[in-house]
Amino acid sequence: MKGFLYFTAAWCQPCQTLGPTMDAIAATGIPVKKVNVDYDTQFVKEYNVMQVPTVILFEQDGRGELGRRTGVQSQQSLTEWVNNA
């Protein structure tokens, strides 16, 4: 199953815009793990995240990262991405 790592920060305006979209995606059953870059620094280093918001698509069967996007994204584009990856 595919899911998202969503790197965000409370002080980031684009993150505040993207947050409800990620919540709506999670409500459809697509896994979303929210990562606060100010507190979860290990994930930030592990995934080499340089800006927020960053959304990483991953495969939970061990294949790992399938791609990443930065900035505000629409629910439709993210849902199409996960369905077509």
In sequence order, what are the helices and strands, one letter per element? Answer: EHEHEEH
Strand content: 25-35%
**By helix and strand content, what is the structural category?**
alpha+beta
Q: Between the first and last Cα atoms, what is the distance in angstroms?
A: 11 Å
Largest sheet: 4 strands, mixed
Oligomeric composition of the shown chains = single chain
Widest sheet, order of strands: 2-1-3-4
**How many helices does DSSP assign?**
3
Using only C-alpha atoms, the radius of gyration works out to: 12 Å
Q: Helix content range of the residues, please?
A: 25-40%
Kindly report the average pLDDT value: 93
- Sequence stretches where pLDDT stays below 50 over 5 or more residues: none
* Backbone shape: globular
Number of strand elements: 4
Question: What labels describe this entry?
Answer:
85 residues; globular; alpha+beta
Any overview of this molecule?
Helices cover 36% and strands 29% of the residues. The chain contains three helices and four strands; from the N terminus they run E-H-E-H-E-E-H. The protein has helices at residues 13-27, 41-46, 75-84, and strands at 2-8, 32-36, 54-59, 64-70. It starts with a strand and ends with a helix. The relative contact order is 0.27.
Map the helices and strands.
Blueprint: E1 2-8, H1 13-27, E2 32-36, H2 41-46, E3 54-59, E4 64-70, H3 75-84
Parallel strand pairs: 1-2
Antiparallel strand pairs: 1-3, 3-4
